[in-house]
Amino acid sequence: MPAEGVGSDPRRRTTPARWRVLGHPDGMLIYQVRCIVEDHGWTEAAAEDRHKIVLGRSGAYRRRLNGRVGLSDATSVLLTRPGDEMAVAHPFGCGDSYTCLEIDSAVLRERPDAERWLGRDGWAGTSDATLDLAHRLLVAEFRRGLDGFEMAERLHRFLARLLHHSALNADDPGAEVERAVRRRPATLAAHRRLADQAREVLADSGFTIGLDEVARQVGSSPHHLSRVFQRMTGSSLTAYRNRLRVRAVLDTLAEADGRPLGALASEYGFADQAHLTRVVREQVGHPPARLRRLLTPSVEDPAGAA
């Protein structure tokens, strides 16, 4: 497919989805996507034709980026370059949603903090709670309506924050484990597979599933699974599950559907509303009621979702 410039219709380059273009100032394009699952198998690998940042919002899918298979979910961040090859699959049936930022190479060449991105293969990592909240607040601000000048400035500020985060987290969380088991590659592969399987179960089974059931589904004991997951990802299973739950809550709050917080607590597996409020505040620094006001656009985008 011929290369297309930033600002052209992104729907021409992807699998079926619902789209919301948020803005396209000064060599940048930002939009939201909710994938429609029509085929659970792998798409054909396609070469990226621009620099892209993909920030997960909800759901999960498998990706094959430059030949390496991984899982993307609401915690994931991808940075791709022109020429990177990507294929995706949706085996879980739940679809996914994400925000994508496309940037002209000329814009990046003017930024000293983008040198690593310009000179390396695609990067796959995760966002922390503060970066994820900054991403969601940025989307809410764009949906409320900004002029081109302010759009460009806010995108540049967010890009600086994201590139700093990717530089700090450039190393694979499992690198230390890989060095420790360098003479046992089969063990390393098994541990990576076990951690990914646990993430897949949590992504596909909702948030009311227990640890014993997760361990049963991946064919492990709870103790072994917990230990391997911590070593391979740098996060406990509980912390990872809480990150997924909080992001699901933020996604729901942004939709302004008016559901009471007690109902959200039950839906996402919290003990009660107080537990939900405590976990959300611990992660992002604000209670859910305040986040609902911050994340909900005061005026709905008249263009809506295409």
Automatic annotation (TrEMBL):
List the Pfam families: HTH_18
Q: Which domain of life is it from?
A: Bacteria
Q: Which UniProt keywords apply?
A: DNA-binding, Transcription, Transcription regulation
Q: Which Gene3D superfamilies match?
A: Homeodomain-like
* Keyword tRNA processing in record: no
Q: Which PROSITE patterns match?
A: HTH_ARAC_FAMILY_1, HTH_ARAC_FAMILY_2
The molecular function GO annotations come to:
DNA-binding transcription factor activity; sequence-specific DNA binding
Record's InterPro entries? AraC_XylS_family_regulators (IPR050204), Homeodomain-like_sf (IPR009057), HTH_AraC (IPR018060), HTH_AraC-typ_CS (IPR018062)
Q: Which residues form the HTH araC/xylS-type domain?
A: 192-294
Q: What name is this protein filed under? A: Transcriptional regulator, AraC family
